[in-house]
Amino acid sequence: MFARVRRPRSVEAALCLAFAMLAGCAGAGSSAAPVSQRALLPDAGSAAIPSASSAYIKHVVIIIQENRTFDDFFATFPGADGTTTGKLHNGKTIPLKVSPLAGDPLSNGWSSFATAYDGGKMDGFDLDPWGGPGLAGKRPYTYVDPTQIQPYWTMAQQYALGDHMFQGEGSGSFTAHQELVAGGEQIDSGHSLVNWPAPPKPGPYAWGCDAPPGTVTSLLTKDDAYLSKAGPFPCLTYATLADQLDQKKISWRYYSGPVKAGGAGWMWNAFEAIKAVRYGSDWTSDISTPSGAILTDVPHGKLAAVTWLTPSVPNSDHEYHGPDHGPSWVAQVVNAIGQSKFWNSTAIVLVWDDWGGHYDHVAPPQFGFGELGMRVPFIVISPYVPAGTISHTQYEFGSILKFVENNWGLQPMQAGDRRATSISDIFDFTQKPRKFSPIPAALSRSFFEHEPPSNLPGDGE
């Protein structure tokens, strides 16, 4: 039984273990002289008055998991916009196969997105090259056995599930993580970052300021023209939410795996690619590794106003050749916050960073610059969220930032957070804060507190 159903309010790549494999995933495109980046400044004309939520929400925690579509996790969730069938490029409809949570990675770069999207027909997933021999075929046409992701279903049942959250761009993790700190990935008015940075030669892969000299990015134009290796070195200078939080002396923290060459912390730490943070005081004061440190920080009374949390590979839901502890990892983070003094003043936002090459039946709206990307799972956990809420509102990653911006009176930074509908409609601040009930999980908090840091390589896309 669901407390309420929201109606729409607005109309608006494979896990690569070495660069050689990554290069095989890249989409074709023309090369051009590198384009210089410039900062996209906040809109000076935008309102910067804290919203009503600021009286209740003092902490926002953004948990970023990896590489799943909505249909892949919630195909059969009652009342949600899921499906158990998929379209092939030849017009045939096939049943989606029930699959285990662990599996082989698929390709999720720009060319794969464009192939799968197929002008809005959502029938080209079987034509994706996927990084292995031949085409993907029926590999993307699956959904995960709900019993293997029960903590996520429990969170969705007890709080709110959004079934129309779209990633900001049709690409992979590099740009997705930028969207969640900067509202987008445009480097100027005519170009947006896409895919992953390209090092000058095979070797330890890097995304940001510590990348080898000669590393460059690729770009998309307003008309979605792909410019291979035409972008700047991936040490970026555009504005991020950290700039405004620092200016207003609002605390923030970004948890990631260890920032080590080739490892997931280097890949999934968005601020490793932001020059002002990587070479500023924030790098030592506001970046925390490993990710599991949050499990000891919160019980000891440490939680920033705005927190980003990225996992290690084994806890990420990203397919790799090993067990996926993601559902238990997220459950124990939520439990730590729910059982702390912070519960009554916190909104936890759980989102998956990109589609991971998996099938989804809902065509994302298109705004140029590769926007929007595929639909991804989205859950909001807070004492001010009525149980069993299903939101059909169209959201994008900028919707999460807009909620943060409105809550603290900050300004939008890029097209994504200017355009997006805030997630504020999920909350009901007229209700008394709900008592927290722990989320059952197969693995204990102690398991993650004693888990050795993983230096497995992150998502190459």
Q: Which descriptors apply to this entry?
A:
globular; single chain; 461 residues; 14 helices; Alkaline Phosphatase, subunit A
* Rough outline: globular
- Report the helical percentage: 10-25%
Question: How many discrete structural domains?
Answer: 1
- What can be said about the biggest beta sheet? 9 strands, mixed
Strand content: 15-25%
Q: Span from first to last CA?
A: 38 Å
Oligomer: single chain
CATH architectural category: 3-Layer(aba) Sandwich
CATH fold annotation: Alkaline Phosphatase, subunit A
CATH class: Alpha Beta
Q: How many strand units?
A: 21
Mean of all residue-level pLDDT scores: 88
Note the total helix count. 14
Per CATH, the superfamily is Alkaline Phosphatase, subunit A
Describe this structure in words.
By secondary structure, the protein is an alpha/beta fold. It has one domain: Alkaline Phosphatase, subunit A, CATH 3.40.720.10. Helix content is about 20%, strand content about 15%. It is built from 14 helices and 21 strands. The strands form five sheets. The chain has a nine-stranded mixed beta sheet, sandwiched between helices. A five-stranded mixed beta sheet has the order 2-13-12-11-10. Strands 18-9-21 form a three-stranded mixed beta sheet. A hairpin with a 5-residue loop joins strand 4 and strand 5. The longest helix has 13 residues. The protein is globular. The two termini are about 40 Å apart. The N terminus is likely disordered.
